Amino acid sequence: MIGASLGAAAYERAPEISGILAGAGPVEDTRPARLSAKTDAILTLSGIGIAFGGVKALSDVDLEVKGGEIRAVIGPNGAGKSSLINIISGLYHADRGRIAIDGQSFSRVPASRLARLGVARTFQNLALFGGLSVRDNIASGRVHTRRASFVEHIAGLPRARREDARIAEKVDRTIAFLHLDTVADRLVATLPYGLQKRVELARALVAEPKILLLDEPMAGMTATEKAEMAGFVRAARDRHGVTIILIEHDIGVVMGLSDRVAVLDYGRKIADGTPAEVRTDPAVIRAYIGTADGEGI
Ligand SMILES: Nc1ncnc2c1ncn2[C@@H]1O[C@H](COP(=O)(O)OP(=O)(O)OP(=O)(O)O)[C@@H](O)[C@H]1O
């Protein structure tokens, strides 16, 4: 497996991200374009490029994601994977290229409208409210659906009560789906790391996204936790039809879970295909272990 073959050298070529967000506020493209009826792509990236100072994080990257598929993006450290997810979710703004999400085309994805575009994401490092319960953290994933005003909520007016009941029902269903019932009222900070990652998945799923972006959902997990998480990700696709874009370092997990895998190296896409195709691609083998005749991938 690639995972077993990945030496530290391949993984330690690039500095870690600095966390500085690029670009100014979201600017929606004023010329929305509908997707061609000939394609079943729900997400298309065309010619995406972004640089930070002198570092080209992504150069001319194309990516097509079909509705209902589990699509992995892999590559050594610093290859540009997180930058790609951050561009799709509007946190970074590409210097070049276009992004089409479910029929709407953007040069800059409006982060503030992401949930309404049907996109949800999780983060590489947990981004939960540790002092709130699991239930409240998950409910925060539906904030964008609230229509009743603050005053209506304070006064307990019917619209606000109906809204609360609807959200509570969706939260309960998500808790059951991800087997979080026994910890639903615990403070998130008191949970083991693997369960916290699952709560983050729950918060993304409760929004009922069409597209779910998962940035290293299994990082730091035990083998058992990874297998459980992989099962939940697959179930989200199989039972709810969610399209999933996944960045993950554990290549064994990626190969077992994904329909198609795109491989980045130094910001360029070097391979794209089924797990079986990518696994034997000489460019991928070179990128990961520095030699075209590497074994065991
Ligand atoms: N906000 C930023 N500011 C400056 N440089 C950045 C920023 N984000 C990414 N980079 C740089 O862009 C390149 C690609 O980084 P990115 O995090 O996208 O790669 P990655 O494949 O996700 O890496 P990893 O697997 O280590 O998370 C790296 O050289 C990184 O240092």
From TrEMBL:
Keywords: ATP-binding, Nucleotide-binding, Transport. CDD domains: ABC_Mj1267_LivG_branched. InterPro entries: AAA+_ATPase (IPR003593), ABC_AA/LPS_Transport (IPR051120), ABC_transporter-like_ATP-bd (IPR003439), BCA_ABC_TP_C (IPR032823), P-loop_NTPase (IPR027417). GO terms for cellular component: plasma membrane. SMART domains: AAA (SM00382). GO terms for molecular function: ATP binding; ATP hydrolysis activity. The keyword Glycoprotein does not apply. Residues 43-291 form the ABC transporter domain. PROSITE patterns: ABC_TRANSPORTER_2 (PS50893). The keyword Transcription regulation does not apply. This is ABC transporter ATP-binding protein. It comes from Mesorhizobium tamadayense. The lineage of its organism: Bacteria, Pseudomonadati, Pseudomonadota, Alphaproteobacteria, Hyphomicrobiales.
